[in-house]
Write a structure and sequence with these properties.
heterodimer; A: 225 residues; 83% helix; B: 203 residues; 5-stranded parallel β-sheet; 4-stranded antiparallel β-sheet
C-alpha cells in the first residue's frame, strides 16, 4: 500500500468497520431510498409514459434526501468522543484523513444507492440504456453529494439545531448535481445523448474532490478550537 | 525543549490566564494545577496546538510549533478528557486503529501486550461499550505503552482509575520521563510521581 495514502485507507477501514457495527444507520438511508422511490409508481399507477418522464427526477431527489439523512452524523460521533481531536493531532495531513472519511461515507451511503437504482428504475419502465446512464450519472453524482455534504456537516458541527441548518446549507448546493444527473437520463430518453450532462457532472466531481476536503478541513479546525 | 512565553487564553468574554511562561526539558514532568475552570485544559489544548493562544508563543526544540506542524505532532501524544475510544469496537481494534491514525502499524503481539499491561487481558475482544468507565480509560491509556512520542500531554489521566491502575500509569510516566521524555499533566488528585515541576493556572 502506498504510504502516502495509508491514512486514507486506515480511516476507510475504520469507518466501514464502524458502519458494520451500526448497521441501522446504513440501512435507514437505504430503506428510505427504496420506499420513497417505490411510492411514486404505486401512487401514479401504470401510466408508463408519465413514469418514464418523472423517473430520473424522482430517483435523484430520493438519492439527495437519503444522502442527507446520515450527514449530520458524519463527524458528530468523532467530535463527541475525542477522535476528531486525535485526527487533527495525527502526523498525517488532516485533509487526507477527511478524504478517507468522505470516501467511507460514499461507500456506505452512496454506493448502495447506485447499485439499487437500476432495480428501482424498472418500476418506472426505464429501458436498459436509460438504466445504464442512470447508474453512470449516480456513480459520478453520489460522491459529489458526499463531498458537498461533508462541508455542510463540518460547518454545522456542534451547533444547536445544526441538522436544519445543514439541510438549508447543503440542499441548494446539491441543485447542480440534481440538474445534470437527472438531465443525463432525460437527454438519453429524448435521444439527445447524455455525454454533455455526464461530462459536466464529472467536472463538478473533479472540482469537489480537490476543493471539498480542503474546505471541510478548514471548517473542522474552527469547530475543534 | 518545550517552552512557552507570555501565553494568555480568552474563552468567550473571559480571560482565563495571561502572561504564563513555562519551560520543560527532557526528563522532566510538569503538573498543571488550578481550580475548576481556571484554564488547565485550555492550556493543555494550546500546548498541543489544538487551539491558538490569544497571545504568546510556544516553541518546541527552539522552533515555533506553528511552523513545525506535522513534525511537532509526530513527537506529541495528547490524551484529552474524551476517550477517543469507539464504543462499538473492541479494545484491540481501538488500539490498532489508533496506531494507524498515528501513521504506524502495530502488530498483534505489541497490542495484546499493551492491553495486558493495563489489565485488559481477557477483554481484548469485548466491545468497549460493555466495559466500565475505568476500563474504558485503560483502553485509552494503553496507547501510552505503544506510541513512541517524546512529549506526553495528559488531561486528568488518573480519572476513573483504581489504585492498581494509578500505580501502573505512574510507573509508565516515570519510565517515560526517565528515558528522556517529557510529560505535562493535570490532575486534581495528588500525583504519585517524584520531582515534578508545578505551574499554577488562573487569572
Amino acid at each position: 500500500m502506498n504510504t502516502a495514502l495509508a491514512p486514507i485507507f486506515a480511516i476507510i477501514r475504520r469507518d466501514l468497520l464502524l458502519a458494520m457495527r451500526r448497521k441501522s444507520e446504513v440501512l435507514t438511508a437505504l430503506f428510505f431510498f427504496i420506499i420513497v422511490v417505490s411510492l411514486f409508481p404505486l401512487g401514479i399507477g401504470p401510466e408508463t409514459a408519465l413514469l418514464r418522464k418523472i423517473a430520473p427526477g424522482v430517483i435523484w431527489v430520493a438519492a439527495l434526501l437519503a444522502t442527507m439523512l446520515g450527514l449530520a452524523r458524519l463527524f458528530a460521533p468523532d467530535h463527541a468522543d475525542g477522535t476528531l481531536e486525535q485526527m487533527v493531532l495525527s502526523p498525517s495531513p488532516l485533509g487526507l484523513l477527511i478524504t478517507g472519511k468522505i470516501a467511507a461515507h460514499w461507500i456506505t451511503t452512496g454506493l448502495p444507492l447506485v447499485l439499487l437504482a437500476p432495480v428501482l428504475g424498472i418500476q418506472f419502465d426505464l429501458d436498459g440504456g436509460a438504466l445504464g446512464i442512470m447508474v453512470v450519472a449516480l456513480l459520478l453524482g453520489t460522491p459529489l453529494l458526499s463531498l458537498i455534504g461533508a462541508i455542510g456537516a463540518a460547518l454545522t458541527l456542534g451547533l444547536r439545531g445544526g441538522g436544519v441548518l445543514l439541510s438549508l446549507l447543503v440542499l441548494p448546493l446539491y441543485v447542480p448535481a440534481l440538474i445534470f444527473g437527472a438531465g443525463a437520463v432525460e437527454a438519453h430518453i429524448s435521444g439527445l445523448g447524455a455525454g454533455g450532462h455526464l461530462s459536466l457532472l464529472a467536472a463538478l466531481l473533479a472540482l469537489a474532490v480537490f476543493f471539498a476536503p480542503w474546505a471541510t478541513t478548514a471548517a473542522l479546525r474552527i469547530a475543534i478550537e | 525543549m518545550l517552552s512557552a512565553t507570555a501565553l494568555s487564553c480568552i474563552r468567550g468574554e473571559r480571560r482565563l490566564f495571561s502572561g504564563l511562561d513555562l519551560d520543560v526539558g527532557p526528563g522532566e514532568w510538569l503538573h498543571v494545577q488550578g481550580e475548576n475552570g481556571a484554564g488547565k485544559t485550555s492550556l493543555l489544548r494550546i500546548l498541543a496546538s489544538l487551539s491558538p493562544p490569544a497571545e504568546g508563543e510556544i516553541r518546541w526544540r527552539g522552533e515555533p510549533i506553528a511552523s513545525l506542524a506535522e513534525d511537532y505532532r509526530r513527537e506529541l501524544l495528547f490524551l484529552g478528557h474524551h476517550g477517543a475510544v469507539k464504543e462499538e469496537l473492541t479494545p484491540y481494534e481501538n488500539l490498532i486503529l489508533a496506531a494507524r491514525l498515528d501513521g504506524t502499524e502495530l502488530n498483534e503481539v505489541e497490542a495484546l501486550k499493551a492491553l495486558a499491561r493495563f489489565g485488559l487481558r481477557g477483554r481484548e475482544d469485548l466491545a468497549v461499550r460493555f466495559l466500565s468507565a475505568g476500563q474504558k480509560r485503560r483502553v485509552l491509556l494503553a496507547r501510552l505503552a505503544v506510541r513512541k512520542a517524546t512529549l506526553w500531554i495528559l488531561d486528568e489521566p488518573f480519572t476513573a482509575l483504581d489504585v492498581k491502575a494509578v500505580e501502573m500509569l505512574s510507573g509508565l510516566i516515570v519510565e517515560h520521563v526517565t528515558q528522556g521524555g517529557i510529560a505535562i499533566l493535570t490532575s486534581h488528585q495528588a500525583i504519585p510521581l517524584p520531582n515534578g515541576k508545578i505551574i499554577m493556572v488562573g487569572a
